Every structure is written in structure tokens, then in C-alpha cells.
């Protein structure tokens, strides 16, 4: 039974996929309320209120996935999650329209003083002269960050007859023209916009993007809007420009600290605010909760997720194609690690044939996870395998190569250690399964499963027989045997499989045979 903690308020209807699942138990409580049981949860669902810190992740020892029912993941320590092998997913497009509409509502409210006029009428005043506003028609709107929300906002602004200037480092001129906006530099936006709104994520680069210097470059009397994340507009700088009258008005849905109880910004009459309501509509909440519930359930049941922040994402169709190679890769990594018990500097992976047309980075991560899991005690999976490898000084590379092996598909791995190297080749035959078809230039053909014994020996009469006799004397049943050699009388290899593991004493006995060069046990 999977245990899922829903730590922030979420649409009940949206959680239905998880509530209906027979193998899932949902607990809807704040983190503080389940402090003693944190180690039990497999999945954690949050919005922006719960801070998923490294410390929380460390206390949640069974955690496999964090689902963010929304877009921004700045409340989640994604690096720490990645290090611990915890998948982070979000619901990227479920609240786009709601947030664009909210931003538009804030913009209209700002230039027409609607919140201030509302408060005035409620206190029995009728002061029409105090709230003379401005039209949006004909004004320039500068949008910084032209992703999902920024572009939906642009469509609405154009319908209101506004000129839209946009800045986004990833926006091509073509795309801007198609949408009917003008892609320009941030300097142009600052100098030419009547209203500026930010729609970027909060990152190291965007923190303080509109700060002392950049706000100083805006038109006197500019309106500023932040319905993205507190901190993209630097609050201290903003206060200075409000005090000196450079900024005419501000609309804020988000703050550096939420709730902003001690913020001086709340004292300005020309600062209008909402309590982080951008995504707070029935529609958006149903969308995002349904999206993450489905994704979390898929993940817990071993199916692919499509909106992961720290994992290569795949559609169901692609996942089905990649799955056999993904499993083969993991086993190959594991075999290499068990055969080559010495420090490794480099892992080079080569893909040939039909497998090379798939998302190979996913297979590479799986192979690395298989390799590392046999060597490190902490959780290693495809989420953190690349990071763990780098931390341990192991470099890895992948290459697509033209078909040299003759197989319809082939994965080859070359591992370089301090003193030795090791090579393995694997293929997947439809309706037949996984096969290891090469080890260190020896052609071989075995199924990578169960308990295996890899023996390097001299190709001399009687060696195989002697090994068989010792195993028989110890009542060990050999399930399969494969042998490979390059030339008569030279070095050869044997791969035997068993139904149970072999004990050390027996291995030592086999090692003592004259023509046996080395022996490795492999458990898969
Ligand atoms: N107030 C609220 O309730 C909500 C707030 N948000 C916030 O809005 C942000 C944007 O959401 P979406 O549009 O869905 O994300 P998105 O990922 O579709 O768009 C973000 C855009 O920002 C651009 N960008 C990144 N760095 C930039 C920089 N330095 N300068 C200019 N552009 C930059 C990216 O290229 C991207 O196109 C989210 O990250 C989240 O923080 C999202 C939903 C609700
Ligand atoms: O999706 C986002 O990034 C949001 O900011 C929405 O936050 P919320 O889920 O309403 O706490």
C-alpha cells in the first residue's frame, strides 16, 4: 500500500485518481501534524505553501516522488531531491489561463483604481475625482518572460488594443511575429513600456531582475505588476521608487515573504495586492490536482511520468518502446559493476540500430543507476545517477554509432578502471528477451537474470568438467551454461546460471583450479 501525504489544500475532485486507487492511502495533513510518521510516505503532494527543504526530504526516508500541484517549484529543493533520488513533478499548464486572467484583472484594477474606489465607497464616500484612471487602449505593455502565462496575457492585451513588447531569452523573432508581439531587449522594455509585468520563474538569474538599476531605467509614472514570484521585483528597491514617485502604481499577487505581514509595501495606497491568488480558481485547482494525482499514481505503479523536473520525460508510447532497453541497461550496468570490482573513471556507452533512435539518455541513466547501485549504499536511481557518478569522479558518455555488431539493436559499454577495462554488449530480441552477447571481445549468449558465475579460464580439456563436478558434489544445480573463446587453446570464458547463490567456500574451491584465471559471482 502506497502512503501519500497531501500537505497543502487541494481540490478533492482533483485528488480522485488517488482516492480511487486501491493500492493508495491518502493522508491530508500539514507536515507538522505528521512529524512522527514522515518516514512512512512514498509520495508528497504540495502547492506553494509547504517548503520542501533538504531537511524535510531527509526526514521522509521512504519518499519517492514530490508532486507540485502548480507551476513554480521554487519552494522545493530540487537539487536535494535529485541527490536523494526523489522525482519532482509539476502540473505546468493547468493554471495558465487562471493566472493570465488574474494578471489582466490586476492590470485593469491598477489603472482604474478599482480596489481603492471599492474601499472608499464601502466607507460611504462618493469621491469620483480621486479615482480618475487611464485607458489600457493604446498603452505599451512590457512582458518579461514569455512562456505559457506571458503569451496568454499578450493575447488578452492585444484584444484590448495594447502594444505588447516582450523579452524572453528563449523567444525567437518568428514566434514573436506569429503571436503578433514585438520581441525586444530588456532595455527596450524598460525604456518604452507604460506597464511592465514579469512572468519568469524565480531563479538565481531572475531574482531582483527589476531592482534598483532596472527600475531606474523605466519611464517615470510606470506601473509594475508581479503575479509570478515574490523577489523577481526587488521589494526594497520598489519601496524607494514608490517613495520618490517614479513608480505610479504596483499590483502584487506574490511577495518575498508570504504572508507579507511586516512589509512596508502594504502601507502604500497605490500598491494593490491579492494573497497569491493567481491559480486560485476552481478550474485551475481541478486541473492541477488531477494532473499531479494521475502522474503520481502512474509513477508509483511504475509507469512513466510526463512532466518531471529532474528526470527525462517520456510519453506512454515512447516508454513502452524504451522499457526493454531500460531494463537491459540497468542489468548491464549491474553486471559490469560486479565483474569489475575496482575504481572506475570512465563509462562509455554506445547505441546501435533501433535502440539508437530512442531517448537514449534515459537508458544511460538507468545503466548508470545499475552500475552505481552495486557500489554505493545510498539510494541511486535514474533521477540521481548522473549526479552520483560525477560526485564519485566517474565520467560517462554516450554515442550513437552505425550498426557494427550485426544485431538489430545493440548496447555496448566500455568501462575504464585504474588497472583494467571491461566491455559488455547486450541486445533485446522482440518476443525472446534480453541477451548479453559479448564480454571483453568474447562472443557469448546468455540471459541476464538470477545468480550467475563468470569464469575466465584457459581453453583446455577437462576444465568445464571439473567445474561441473565440484558444483555437483555440492548439490548445486546448473540452470544454464555458456562458453566463449577467441581461439583454440587460448583464453576462454564461462557463464553459468543457478537457482540460488553460491557460498564463498565453493567459490574458493573453484578459484584454486590451475586453469581458472578469475571468478566473479553476479547476483541480478
Ligand atoms: N501567482 C500565481 O499563483 C502563479 C504564479 N506562477 C508563476 O509564474 C511563472 C511563469 O509560469 P509559466 O508561464 O507557466 O512558466 P513558463 O515556463 O511557461 O514561462 C516562463 C518563461 O520565463 C522565461 N525566462 C526565464 N528566465 C528569464 C529571464 N531571465 N528573463 C526573461 N525571461 C526568462 C522562460 O524562457 C520562459 O519562457 C512560474 O514560474 C510561477 O513562478 C505560475 C502560476 C500561478
Ligand atoms: O503554480 C504556481 O506557480 C503558483 O504560484 C500557484 O501557487 P498555489 O498552488 O496557488 O500555492
Automatic annotation (TrEMBL):
<dbReference type="InterPro" id="IPR029009">
    <property type="entry name" value="ASB_dom_sf"/>
</dbReference>
<dbReference type="GO" id="GO:0004617">
    <property type="term" value="F:phosphoglycerate dehydrogenase activity"/>
</dbReference>
<dbReference type="Pfam" id="PF02826">
    <property type="entry name" value="2-Hacid_dh_C"/>
</dbReference>
<dbReference type="InterPro" id="IPR036291">
    <property type="entry name" value="NAD(P)-bd_dom_sf"/>
</dbReference>
<dbReference type="InterPro" id="IPR029753">
    <property type="entry name" value="D-isomer_DH_CS"/>
</dbReference>
<comment type="similarity">
    <text>Belongs to the D-isomer specific 2-hydroxyacid dehydrogenase family.</text>
</comment>
<comment type="function">
    <text>Catalyzes the reversible oxidation of 3-phospho-D-glycerate to 3-phosphonooxypyruvate, the first step of the phosphorylated L-serine biosynthesis pathway. Also catalyzes the reversible oxidation of 2-hydroxyglutarate to 2-oxoglutarate.</text>
</comment>
<dbReference type="InterPro" id="IPR002912">
    <property type="entry name" value="ACT_dom"/>
</dbReference>
<keyword id="KW-0718">Serine biosynthesis</keyword>
<keyword id="KW-0560">Oxidoreductase</keyword>
<dbReference type="InterPro" id="IPR006139">
    <property type="entry name" value="D-isomer_2_OHA_DH_cat_dom"/>
</dbReference>
<dbReference type="InterPro" id="IPR050857">
    <property type="entry name" value="D-2-hydroxyacid_DH"/>
</dbReference>
<protein>
    <recommendedName>
        <fullName>D-3-phosphoglycerate dehydrogenase</fullName>
        <ecNumber>1.1.1.95</ecNumber>
    </recommendedName>
</protein>
<dbReference type="InterPro" id="IPR006140">
    <property type="entry name" value="D-isomer_DH_NAD-bd"/>
</dbReference>
<comment type="pathway">
    <text>Amino-acid biosynthesis; L-serine biosynthesis; L-serine from 3-phospho-D-glycerate: step 1/3.</text>
</comment>
<dbReference type="InterPro" id="IPR006236">
    <property type="entry name" value="PGDH"/>
</dbReference>
<dbReference type="InterPro" id="IPR045626">
    <property type="entry name" value="PGDH_ASB_dom"/>
</dbReference>
<dbReference type="Pfam" id="PF01842">
    <property type="entry name" value="ACT"/>
</dbReference>
<feature type="domain" description="ACT">
    <location>
        <begin position="452"/>
        <end position="524"/>
    </location>
</feature>
<keyword id="KW-0520">NAD</keyword>
<dbReference type="Pfam" id="PF19304">
    <property type="entry name" value="PGDH_inter"/>
</dbReference>
<dbReference type="InterPro" id="IPR045865">
    <property type="entry name" value="ACT-like_dom_sf"/>
</dbReference>
<dbReference type="InterPro" id="IPR029752">
    <property type="entry name" value="D-isomer_DH_CS1"/>
</dbReference>
<keyword id="KW-0028">Amino-acid biosynthesis</keyword>
<dbReference type="Pfam" id="PF00389">
    <property type="entry name" value="2-Hacid_dh"/>
</dbReference>
Amino acid at each position: 500500500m502506497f502512503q501519500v501525504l497531501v500537505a497543502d489544500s487541494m481540490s478533492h475532485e482533483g485528488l480522485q485518481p488517488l482516492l480511487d486507487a486501491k493500492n493508495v492511502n491518502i493522508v491530508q495533513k500539514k507536515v507538522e501534524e505528521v512529524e512522527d510518521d514522515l518516514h512512512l510516505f512514498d509520495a508528497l503532494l504540495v502547492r506553494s505553501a509547504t517548503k520542501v527543504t533538504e531537511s524535510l526530504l531527509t526526514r521522509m526516508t521512504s519518499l519517492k516522488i514530490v508532486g507540485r500541484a502548480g507551476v513554480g517549484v521554487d519552494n522545493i529543493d530540487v537539487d536535494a531531491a535529485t541527490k536523494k533520488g526523489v522525482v519532482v513533478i509539476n502540473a505546468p499548464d493547468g493554471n495558465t489561463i487562471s493566472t493570465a486572467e488574474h494578471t489582466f484583472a490586476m492590470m485593469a484594477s491598477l489603472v482604474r483604481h478599482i480596489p481603492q474606489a471599492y474601499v472608499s465607497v464601502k466607507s460611504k464616500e462618493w469621491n469620483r475625482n480621486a479615482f480618475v484612471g487611464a485607458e489600457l487602449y493604446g498603452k505599451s505593455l512590457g512582458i518579461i518572460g514569455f512562456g505559457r502565462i506571458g503569451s496568454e496575457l499578450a493575447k488578452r492585451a492585444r484584444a484590448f488594443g495594447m502594444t505588447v513588447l516582450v523579452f524572453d531569452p528563449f523567444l525567437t523573432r518568428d514566434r514573436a511575429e506569429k503571436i503578433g508581439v514585438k520581441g525586444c531587449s530588456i532595455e527596450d522594455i524598460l525604456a518604452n513600456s507604460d506597464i511592465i509585468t514579469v512572468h519568469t520563474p524565480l531563479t538565481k538569474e531572475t531574482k531582483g531582475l527589476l531592482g534598483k538599476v532596472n527600475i531606474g531605467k523605466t519611464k517615470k509614472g510606470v506601473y509594475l505588476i508581479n503575479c509570478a514570484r515574490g523577489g523577481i521585483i526587488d521589494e526594497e528597491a520598489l519601496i524607494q521608487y514608490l517613495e520618490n514617485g517614479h513608480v505610479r502604481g504596483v499590483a502584487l499577487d506574490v511577495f518575498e515573504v508570504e504572508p507579507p505581514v511586516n512589509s512596508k509595501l502594504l502601507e502604500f495606497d497605490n500598491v494593490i495586492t491579492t494573497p497569491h491568488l493567481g491559480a486560485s480558481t476552481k478550474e485551475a485547482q481541478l486541473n492541477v490536482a488531477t494532473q499531479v494525482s494521475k502522474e503520481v499514481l502512474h509513477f508509483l505503479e511504475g509507469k512513466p511520468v510526463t512532466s518531471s523536473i529532474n528526470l527525462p520525460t517520456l510519453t506512454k508510447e515512447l516508454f513502452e518502446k524504451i522499457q526493454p532497453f531500460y531494463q537491459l541497461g540497468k542489468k548491464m550496468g549491474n553486471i559490469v559493476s560486479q565483474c569489475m570490482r575496482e575504481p572506475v573513471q570512465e563509462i562509455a556507452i554506445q547505441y546501435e540500430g533501433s535502440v539508437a533512435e530512442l531517448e537514449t539518455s534515459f537508458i544511460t541513466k538507468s545503466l548508470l543507476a545499475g552500475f552505481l547501485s552495486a557500489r554505493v549504499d545510498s539510494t541511486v536511481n535514474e533521477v540521481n545517477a548522473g549526479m552520483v557518478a560525477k560526485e564519485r569522479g566517474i565520467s560517462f558518455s554516450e554515442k550513437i554509432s552505425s550498426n557494427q555488431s550485426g544485431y538489430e539493436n545493440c548496447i555496448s559499454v566500455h568501462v575504464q578502471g585504474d588497472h583494467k577495462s571491461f566491455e559488455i554488449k547486450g541486445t533485446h530480441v522482440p518476443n525472446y528477451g534480453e541477451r548479453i552477447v559479448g564480454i571483453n571481445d568474447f562472443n557469448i549468449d546468455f540471459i541476464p537474470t538470477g545468480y550467475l558465475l563468470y569464469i575466465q579460464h584457459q581453453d583446455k580439456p577437462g576444465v568445464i568438467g571439473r567445474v561441473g563436478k565440484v558444483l555437483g558434489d555440492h548439490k548445486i544445480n546448473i540452470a544454464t551454461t555458456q562458453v566463449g573463446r577467441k581461439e583454440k587453446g587460448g583464453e576462454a570464458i564461462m557463464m553459468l546460471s543457478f537457482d540460488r547463490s553460491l557460498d564463498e567456500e565453493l567459490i574458493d574451491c573453484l578459484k584454486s583450479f590451475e586453469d581458472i584465471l578469475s571468478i566473479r559471482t553476479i547476483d541480478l
